[in-house]
Every structure is written in structure tokens, then in C-alpha cells.
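Posted in: Structural Biology > Protein-Ligand Complexes

Title: Requesting predicted complex, DLL in pocket

I'd be grateful if someone could produce the C-alpha cells for the following input. Sequence and ligand are given below.
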Amino acid sequence: MIWREDVECASPADLKALQSGYLKKLIPYIYHNCPVYKQKLDAAGVKPDRIKSIDDIKRLPFTTKEDMRDYYPYGLFSAPQEQIKEIHVSSGTTGNPTLVGYTKDDLKLWGDVMARVLGCAGAVPGDTIQIAYGYGLFTGGLGFHYGALEMGLRIIPTSSGQTARQLKLMQDFKTKIIACTPSYVLYMAEEAKELGVDPAKGNWKIGIFGAEPWSEAMRREIESIWNMLATDVYGLSEIIGPGVAQECHHKDGLHIFSDVFYPEVINPKTGEEVPEGEDGELTITTLTKQGIPLIRYGTRDVVSIRYEKCRCGRTSPRISKIKGRTDDMIVVRGINVFPSQIEHVLIGIKGTQPHYQIIVDRQAHKLDEVEVLVEVEQRFFSDEIKRLNEIRDKIRKEIENVLSIGVKVTLVEPKTIERSVGKSKRIIDKRAL
Ligand code: DLL
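-- Reply #1 --
Done. Output follows.
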């Protein structure tokens, strides 16, 4: 079933007319309601009433992750606070988290685009979906929930974790669609086998996996173990959460809902659009959001884009799988981790050195593991072992507090971690992503 066939299969000219109409309304709206954007647009010499077509987007200034942090909490909002009905946050680099707020209409939009995600993956009204993305401040659980409500699915809102129970509910309620991170579904398979459940035999047919990078090899593995179609879903909190792009059953690029999230692929060095098919930073303008609309937001996700029509009939542009990041963020078990967050913790702990390394690994079908090597002053090694353990536990607790995931901390003597002349190598990612 094709959800919103009218826009997803629209001719390029009709799509452009729709986008142009939205942009013409958006720019005066943010200019008059958000002082930060007024200043940015004035500085770029943009007169809101001169915006006539989507092509004028090239004259607009970019919005960055730093802007989100610098104007925290409400600086980038265009709607008054009393109209904000829901708030989500995701981890920022240091200090302030990234905050997003939704008006009632934004929540409706979220439900709509998520219903389109579900439709694109092959769901039809009446299907049963198990939502094993985390519910809470993370946008995964509730985003899928709103979309499933909008489409009329039967929802099993398990959230993440409690794997044995997930597996039981999947069997008892004949789950057809499973939504979670790709690493979690592989982990579930392992647990299933231990519990004597054959993951290849069940009612499940479609998986909607995202929130972290995964490879074609991982897709093949998931599809053969679970005997289901494994599709990729992309999104980020700043834009809306999940609901920005989704693969159809051809699995040949993620359809980006460009009627509402206008994509450009930009060379970060020049600020110019790269030619079709070449890699660059995915940059998105939210054409219809009200609470915190963003113009030309640099996602820092590296993709390429194609505009040709898909075999499924959709004309919406397709982005590649996420090929990397323009910054040093890594995603571990669906959680965004910046090395600077760990650095921040270490700076606050006496006796540690600012030399550390993060090792991320994934044993077959196990969840990602993070080990942080930290150099501590030599004197700790001549002290009692108790002191060494105390400082190790303190570091571990503080890092876990900031990152919200379990880590292993290993203390090492000064000068153990390799020094580099240029950019230091903070992360060793051993996962085959
Ligand atoms: O991860 C939203 C989401 C929830 C997407 C559930 C899909 C499913 P954030 O926590 O703000 O939001 O993290 C966004 O995660 O900029 C990417 O770097 C990464 N990411 C998200 N989806 C994918 C994907 C949610 N399919 C950041 N492939 C993004 C690779 C992804 N990376």
C-alpha cells in the first residue's frame, strides 16, 4: 500500500510547487516569530517577502548543531511556549542536550510522516507492530507509536529491553512488524536460540530498523536469521525524530519525505550542493513544522542522493544509507556518543589525564560494548589496589551517568595511549558496520 500516493508519487513540477508554497509561508513565519532567525536572515540580506520558490533556499543561511546548543533552550523556537505540547531531547556534544518541542500540529505531522514510514515498509491497517525502540525522551518509541496510531495498527508498546518477554509477546500476539535498532534484533535472535525459539519461524514479516548505522552484510544476516524483510528507517530528533526517510521493499535507497523535509546534500567545505550521486552532508529544511522549524540544518550525516523514480512508483528523492559522519559522533546501541562528553567527565576528576581512548566492539549477535581506556597518574599504581578500584568505579559511574549506557573502564599508566601528531585517535571502532 502506498500511503499519501498524491505527494509521494507527484510529478517533479507538482512537488516543486508544493515545496515552494510551503517555503514562501515558512520564511516570514520564522522571521517574525524567532528573533535568532530574524537576525540570521537579516545578516544574510534575505527579505522574507522576496522568497518565491524553493530554489530561493540557496540564499538562506545554514543552521548548525552549535546553534541548537548556543540558543538552548528556546532560542530557535518560533512558536510561543504555551503551544509546545511535547518535548524530547537527545544527547548533545557537551553540556546542553539538543532540545526539540512539538506543537499539536507538529505531533500530527509526526504521526503522518511515521504512518508514511510504516506504509513505505509495507504495513497495512490492522497489522500488529511491536515497538521495541525506547519510549521516553528518545524519539524512537513515541514516534513509531504516533505513526502506528495514525495508520490504525495494533500496537504492542514493549519499549527496549526485557528480551525474553519481547520474544514471548512476539509469539503470543503474532507480531507482524518489529521496530527496533538493528543491533537489538540480532541480539534478540541470540536470546531466542538460547530459549529454544527458532527466530526463522514466526508471524513476523517486516523489520524497521534504524537509529544507528548498519551495513548490507548485517541486513543479509538479519533477513536470513529472522526470515523477514529488513528495512532501514532514518531520522533525527532535531528534524522530528524517526520519520524523515524510509526504504520501500526494493531496499534501493531511503525515500525522503521531501514534501515536508527538503533535502540538500552539501559539501561542508564550500557550502555548495554536491552533484547528484556524490557524497556530502545531508542538510534539511523543515517546510511545515511550527514549534522549532529549522532551515538548512546540517545533520552531519554523510549521504548521497538520487532523484530518479523508484520501481515502487515513488518519485521522492532517495538518500543512500548513512555512510558516516562529518564529526566524531558514534552511535552505540542507538545512543549518540560524542568523545567530548567523556573528556568532560575526565576533566572533572582529579588524578586523571586528558588522555583516553574509546574502544567500541560487537561480538557476533551481542550488543555493542564500550571500553574506555583512561590514563591516571602514576601514583595510583603504587597505591593500594583499593584506591585504583575506587577511582575506576567513580569514572565509570560518571561516564554512565552522562552517556546512559554501561561502559567498562580500564585504567592505564601515563603515556600508554598512543600519541598522535595530528588529530588524536579517540575512537577505535571494531564493529564491522
Ligand atoms: O535516532 C531517531 C530515530 C529513532 C531514527 C528510531 C530511526 C529510528 P537521534 O537520537 O537524534 O534520533 O539520533 C540521530 O542517529 O543523525 C544519525 O547519525 C543516526 N541515525 C539515525 N537513523 C539512522 C540510520 C534518532 N537509519 C542520529 N542509519 C542521526 C544510520 C542513523 N544512522
